[in-house]
């Protein structure tokens, strides 16, 4: 961040000389977006609300973005003139010079860090050569602060001397060192460029000021949104519907089908099932639908369901615990019934995490290779082909169709949970307060009492401001996470539970806790001293809400 | 009471409720209300039995064709049926050919392996387990075919059977043994047999992985050979394999095992992975399977160049097929399926394919639409232009106005076109034999020549030139051989017959001389080296030829000219034939994407330019980032411009700014936040971002577009 400014400044001036690539870069409008993405928050670090800072910049940039190349060419000329002609305000200029020199010296010392920017390096040398009494100061803590202040002012001063340039260039553009300075880098170059060694250059903004969504809010707000592309998406879906007869023919010829492309294909699959059912109306084929995203889905259950679809009442009471056994039973049954109508198996997201493992894929591919089984699988990830080697591909015998739908993955995974996991802000249980309340209602009174006890204890602890001793390093996470660290020791809760006649034995106590654990209503961790700490993955308000409901009911 | 309550709830659950289930049997949303919705197991039974009853009814009625009417849905049902029948007829013919080739390819190795299995035994090998090491190379699927056929043989002869073991079946020793035993028993007894075998026995019940079971089975059935085939032996855990081998060898006196290892790398590598003690337990023989490409080449030749061909694949499809074979180690089966798919797509989607049907002429179809389609063909236009140039404008008028006439002409042109295609492939085949005969190049296969021929370039190619040039230097023995390989319809031509006659007469006239030499042969020319003014000059001059050689050279010249003319006449570009659209399929694209998709490219494209997919109704089809795009696409484009790690807050503000600049003050921050959540979670599910531990609230980029 700090060493960035001289880089980008010099880079601008030197580009036409050192890297001729630059000429064709900026015309394509990517600049604008860069600024939207990265530049603007850096440019206005004082601003608190993102709303304002961004509202101003993109509009301004969009106009200027296209003009930049010509300005660059001019900028070079202007730069040389400022050097050669006498400057109007000598002191200011000297200050600027000095600051530039300091930074140049530092740059020269630390050059191996950033060899990519040889433009900057060369400029640094030049500045130093200008006057040979370069104060080769290395960076200590104090100076860094000072320099960073100077750094932000210095280019402004320079440009103040060249008013033309000032007018054409928006404020943010100069300070940014975009991670993609070359709009037209080939992909591999871009990869190496962005993964080069050195410190990362992102702003220090965090999401602490932004209040994140809860599940309830997410669904509430989303209900207010109307999709601008709704008609187009419907049309796209309609196009896919038109290939249903084709898919049916492909099934008929012994192929299995794999649909790929962006968007959830659940609805498409559902309507394909409807269509198949209708088309073969009197003797509708058995259709088994699998949702790959369901957690804990097992291959055995898939096979068992297919076996049920085939055998109906004749299903043997004992199927065998291994999926292979069920599969072989299925295969032998299908072999022994030549008049059996084919079974259609529709798998949503065959590349979903629960099904992704090679063992599962091997089993599924054997299922697919079974005659009389017609398999249609959808995939969501871009690299799903990597799951299958030549053997699997041979057994699956897929034909592939691009079925981009752009539909949202609402049913596939828990969006809020995913995002919080991505941002490292996990700990909000699925369902939140309502979910916990719902589960509690179905539990026996004892369990309810235990949960009430647990909540009361936790809230008391929070009230005491007694954030237990073992809370370590969670400070940066902000107040949201603080309560997660609060927990009650296992023994202590057990003691309280026995006192209140909730649980008479530890065995019983554990059984109750296990129920909570299965529903993710409690968290448990081992602290430094080896004690088990129990907590609740709810915010304080939610805890109070649940407690209230518990007491009232 | 409670029951009725549940029933009333059921319809609501049918959509959403089932969706949360991992796996379920589909039931239509508009199921008959009189069936109780909530009793699941009995319901299933009912549907099942219903289905079967109705199926019987249906099988008596007409089976619905899987084809749909084309020509905007105006194609008649009979025409659809004809098309479907034509497809079935044509493909079943081709499929039989493929099977023939595959069986033929494998037959030799099958004989070898089965004789090995028959003859080897532990006694011969000093108590070692007899094992066959089969290197399959890239030809992975061939082992499967081999093993299946071996199994059939052993079962029919009652000697035993083959148990195929894949690495997936062997997670640990117990499961492996269990799988082996079960597979061995079910192989002959069936699944029920296995169950009863497990339960109906005297004495203490044995566990399913006890080899005693297998020993018992072997004894009861009198099995003399039990082949255990490790399909992908490299993928097995070496420790497990070691344990398994020592176990098997200790049971060898009771169970007659023979092992068969499929090896994709090399025997040395395979041996290197096992400890020496295990290797010492094995003794056997080494077999090598043919490479897949060889087999694929033969299949292609049979499919395309057979003299009874009716339909051909064009140049680009051939290119796709062979590109895949060489790049990705396509198995022959996959190759055939791709060919099948090409056939399928032609007959499914091309209404003109109805002309293939033998009874299309007599069926009395309404030709109107079909003829209109024919008139739009590029090759039909070329035909008309040619006819007009030749002054047959009346005929053209007839073609354009008279449907019945056009239809009859179409059938005629189809026939001549097919004949010409057959000739082309005959020329291709003979080019191949000439190449082999003249020892020109062994590497060039039929497929390479076919690609040239299908693009109409073979005639002017190096290959044909080489053949013609080399041919001129042949001696009489060589020519004799060459004449014997000349394709039939060329050999029948008067010129060739005459040549043949003259040639035989010449040979009879000089029965005792050495083979006649060609005048073009370099051996007959004498190189003279002279030094003229300190320069070396090499002059070649023809040695004086004996008379018979001169006569022979004349014959050669004639044959050369005839052959050249034959190539020039036969090797026309298939795209220049009239109505080639009917009997030649040459569209690369649907096929290529169907068999070798590029999903990553598709997803990247969908996200970076969503309006390629979403046909925009608005009047601003610009590529600028705007709130009108799908949310994930917006976020993805912002993401593309970011560096290796991304500040989530900045990403959010940029995302917000996109909406704000579009909608002004009307936009609701929380709604946009919800959209941001959705987009971000989708990016995560696509695997392009992941959590980063480098900084707080940062996410890491994991995919670079275009790589």
User: What separation lies between the terminal Cα atoms of chain B?
Assistant: 63 Å
CATH architecture call of the domain at 125-290 in chain B = 3-Layer(aba) Sandwich
- The helix tally of chain A amounts to 25
Helix % of chain A is 55-70%
Strand residue percentage of chain A: 5-15%
- Widest sheet, order of strands of chain B: 3-4-5-2-6
Helical residue percent of chain B?
55-70%
Q: Could you tell me the radius of gyration of chain A in angstroms? A: 32 Å
Main pleated sheet of chain A: 5 strands, parallel
What is the top-level CATH class of the domain at 125-290 in chain B?
Alpha Beta
- What is the radius of gyration of chain B? 36 Å
Instruction: Quote the average pLDDT of chain B.
Output: 80
* Shape type of chain B: globular
Helix count, DSSP H or I runs of 4 or more residues of chain B: 28
Largest interface comes to: A-B, 139 and 126 residues
Low-confidence stretches of chain B: 1-17, 31-62
Distance between the termini of chain A: 57 Å
- Helix-strand makeup class of chain B: alpha/beta
Fold blueprint:
The complex is a heterodimer of chains A (553) and B (707).
Chain A lengths: L3 H15 L11 H14 L6 H16 L2 H17 L5 H20 L8 H13 L10 H21 L1 H6 L2 H5 L11 H8 L20 H9 L6 H12 L2 H9 L3 E5 L5 H14 L7 E5 L7 H13 L11 H14 L6 E6 L9 H12 L3 E6 L11 H7 L1 E5 L12 H8 L9 H11 L2 H19 L15 H7 L2 E2 H10 L6 H13 L4 E4 L5 E4 L4 H13 L1
Chain B lengths: L1 H18 L3 E3 L14 H21 L16 H43 L9 E7 L4 H18 L2 E6 L7 H27 L11 H11 L3 E6 L7 H13 L6 E7 L3 H7 L2 H4 L2 E7 L3 H14 L6 E2 L1 H14 L3 H18 L18 H8 L2 H12 L3 H9 L1 H35 L8 H9 L7 H11 L3 H10 L2 H4 L2 H16 L15 E8 L2 E8 L4 H24 L9 H4 E2 L3 H7 L3 H10 L22 H10 L4 E3 H16 L5 H18 L2 E3 L6 E4 L6
Parallel strand pairs in B: 2-5, 2-6, 3-4, 4-5, 7-10
Antiparallel strand pairs in B: 8-9, 11-13, 12-13
Helix pairs in contact in B: 3-4, 3-10, 3-12, 5-6, 11-12, 11-17, 14-15, 15-16, 16-17, 18-22, 21-22, 26-27, 26-28, 27-28
């Amino acid at each position: 961040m700090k060493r960035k400014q001289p880089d980008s400044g010099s880079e601008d001036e030197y580009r036409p000389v050192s890297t001729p690539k630059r000429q064709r870069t900026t015309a394509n409008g990517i600049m604008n977006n860069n600024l939207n993405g990265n530049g603007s928050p850096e440019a206005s670090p004082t601003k608190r609300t993102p709303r304002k800072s961004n509202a101003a910049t993109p509009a301004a940039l969009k106009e200027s973005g296209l003009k930049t190349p010509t300005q660059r060419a001019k900028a070079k000329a202007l730069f040389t003139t400022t050097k050669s002609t006498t400057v109007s305000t000598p002191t200011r200029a000297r200050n600027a010079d000095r600051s530039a020199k300091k930074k140049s010296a530092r740059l020269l010392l630390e050059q191996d860090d950033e060899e990519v920017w040889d433009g900057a390096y060369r400029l640094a040398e030049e500045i130093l050569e200008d006057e040979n009494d370069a104060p080769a100061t290395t960076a200590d803590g104090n100076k860094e602060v000072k320099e960073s202040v100077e750094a932000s002012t210095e280019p402004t001063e320079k440009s103040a001397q060249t008013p033309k340039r000032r007018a054409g260039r928006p404020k943010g553009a100069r300070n940014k060192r975009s991670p993609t300075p070359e709009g037209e880098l080939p992909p591999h170059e871009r990869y190496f460029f962005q993964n080069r060694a050195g410190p990362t250059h992102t702003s220090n903004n965090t999401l602490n000021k932004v209040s994140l969504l809860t599940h309830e809010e997410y669904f509430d707000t989303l209900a207010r949104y109307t999709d601008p592309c709704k008609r187009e998406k419907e049309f796209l879906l309609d196009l896919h519907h038109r290939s249903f007869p084709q898919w049916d023919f492909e099934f008929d010829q012994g192929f299995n089908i794999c649909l790929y492309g962006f968007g959830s294909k659940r609805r498409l699959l559902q309507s394909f099932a409807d269509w198949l059912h209708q088309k073969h109306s009197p003797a509708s084929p058995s259709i088994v639908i699998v949702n790959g995203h369901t957690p804990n889905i097992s291959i055995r259950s898939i096979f068992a369901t297919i076996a049920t679809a085939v055998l109906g009442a004749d299903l043997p009471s004992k199927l065998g615990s291994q999926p292979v056994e069920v599969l072989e039973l299925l295969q032998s049954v299908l072999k022994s019934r030549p008049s059996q109508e084919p079974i259609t198996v529709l798998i949503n997201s065959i590349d979903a995490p629960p099904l992704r493992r090679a063992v599962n894929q091997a089993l599924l591919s054997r299922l697919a290779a079974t005659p009389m089984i017609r398999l249609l699988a959808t995939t969501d990830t871009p690299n799903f082909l990597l799951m299958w080697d030549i053997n699997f591909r041979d057994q699956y015998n897929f034909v592939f169709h691009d079925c981009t739908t752009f539909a949202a993955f609402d049913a596939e995974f828990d969006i809020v949970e995913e995002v919080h996991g991505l941002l490292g802000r996990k700990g909000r249980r699925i369902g939140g307060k309502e979910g916990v309340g719902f589960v509690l209602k179905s539990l026996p009174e004892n369990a309810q009492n235990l949960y009430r006890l647990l909540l009361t204890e936790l809230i008391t602890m929070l009230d005491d401001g007694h954030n237990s001793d073992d809370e370590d390093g969670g400070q940066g996470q902000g107040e949201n996470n603080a309560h997660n660290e609060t927990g009650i020791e296992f023994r202590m809760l057990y003691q309280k539970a026995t006192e209140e006649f909730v649980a008479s034995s530890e065995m019983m106590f554990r059984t109750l806790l296990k129920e909570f654990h299965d529903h993710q209503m409690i968290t448990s961790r081992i602290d430094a001293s080896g004690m088990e700490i129990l907590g609740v993955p709810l915010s304080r308000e939610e805890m109070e809400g649940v407690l209230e409901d518990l007491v009232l009911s | 009471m409670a029951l009725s309550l549940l029933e009333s709830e059921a319809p609501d659950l049918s959509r959403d409720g089932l969706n949360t289930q991992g796996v379920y049997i589909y039931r239509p949303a508009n199921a008959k209300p009189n069936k109780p919705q909530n009793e699941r197991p009995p319901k299933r039974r009912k549907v099942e039995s219903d289905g079967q009853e109705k199926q019987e009814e249906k099988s008596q009625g007409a089976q619905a064709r899987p084809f749909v009417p084309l020509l905007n849905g105006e194609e008649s049902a009979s025409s659809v049926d004809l098309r479907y029948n034509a497809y079935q007829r044509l493909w079943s013919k081709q499929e039989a050919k493929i099977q023939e080739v595959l069986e033929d390819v494998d037959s030799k190795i099958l004989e070898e392996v089965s004789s090995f299995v028959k003859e080897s035994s532990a006694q011969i090998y000093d108590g070692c387990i007899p094992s066959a090491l089969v290197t399959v190379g890239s030809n992975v699927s061939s082992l499967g075919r081999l093993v299946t056929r071996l199994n059939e043989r052993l079962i029919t002869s009652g000697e035993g059977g083959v148990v195929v073991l894949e690495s997936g079946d062997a997670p640990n020793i117990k499961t492996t043994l269990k799988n082996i035993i079960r597979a061995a028993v079910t192989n002959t007894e069936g699944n029920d047999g296995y169950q009863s075998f497990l339960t109906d026995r005297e004495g203490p019940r044995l566990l399913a992985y006890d080899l005693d079971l297998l020993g018992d089975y072997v004894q009861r059935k009198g099995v003399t050979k039990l082949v255990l085939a490790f399909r992908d032996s490299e993928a097995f855990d070496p420790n497990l394999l070691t344990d398994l081998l020592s176990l098997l060898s200790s049971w060898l006196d009771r169970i007659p095992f023979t092992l068969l290892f499929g090896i994709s790398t090399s025997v040395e590598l395979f041996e290197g992975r096992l400890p020496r003690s295990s290797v010492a337990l094995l003794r056997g023989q080494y077999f090598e399977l043919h490479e897949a490409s060889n087999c694929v080449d033969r299949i292609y030749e049979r499919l395309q160049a057979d003299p009874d061909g009716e339909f051909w694949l064009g140049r680009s499809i051939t290119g796709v097929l062979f590109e895949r074979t060489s790049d990705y180690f396509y198995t022959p089966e996959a190759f055939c399926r791709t060919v099948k798919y090409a056939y399928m797509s032609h007959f499914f989607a091309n209404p003109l394919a109805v002309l293939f049907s033998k009874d299309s002429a007599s069926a009395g179809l309404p030709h109107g639409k079909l003829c209109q389609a024919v008139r739009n063909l590029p090759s039909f236009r070329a035909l008309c232009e040619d006819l007009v140039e030749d002054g047959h404008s009346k005929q053209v008028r007839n073609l354009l106005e008279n449907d019945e006439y056009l239809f009859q002409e179409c059938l005629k042109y189809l026939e001549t076109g097919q004949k010409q295609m057959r000739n082309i492939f005959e020329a291709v085949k003979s080019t191949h034999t000439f190449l082999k005969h003249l020892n020109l190049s062994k590497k060039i296969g039929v497929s390479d020549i076919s690609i040239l021929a299908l693009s109409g370039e073979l005639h002017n190619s190096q290959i044909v030139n080489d053949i013609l040039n080399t041919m001129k230097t042949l001696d009489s023995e060589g020519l004799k051989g060459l004449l014997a390989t000349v394709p039939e319809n060329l050999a029948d031509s008067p010129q060739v017959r005459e040549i043949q006659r003259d040639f035989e007469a010449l040979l009879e006239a000089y029965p005792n001389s050495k083979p006649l030499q060609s005048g073009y042969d370099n051996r007959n020319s004498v190189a003279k080296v002279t030094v003229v003014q300190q320069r070396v000059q090499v002059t070649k001059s023809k040695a004086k030829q004996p008379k018979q050689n001169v006569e022979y050279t004349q014959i050669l010249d004639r044959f050369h000219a005839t052959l050249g003319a034959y190539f020039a006449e036969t090797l026309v570009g298939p795209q220049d034939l009239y109505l080639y659209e009917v009997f030649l399929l040459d569209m690369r694209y649907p096929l290529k994407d169907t068999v070798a998709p590029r999903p990553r490219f598709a997803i990247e494209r969908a996200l970076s330019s969503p309006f390629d997919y979403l046909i925009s109704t608005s009047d601003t089809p610009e590529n600028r980032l705007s709130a009108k795009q799908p949310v994930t696409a917006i976020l993805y484009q912002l993401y593309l411009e970011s560096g290796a790690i991304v500040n989530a807050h900045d990403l959010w503000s940029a995302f917000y700014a996109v909406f704000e600049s579009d909608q002004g003050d009307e936009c609701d921050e929380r709604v946009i936040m919800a959209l941001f959540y959705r987009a971000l979670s989708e990016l995560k599910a696509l695997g392009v971002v992941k959590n980063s531990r480098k900084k707080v609230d940062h996410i890491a980029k994991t995919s670079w577009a275009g790589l």
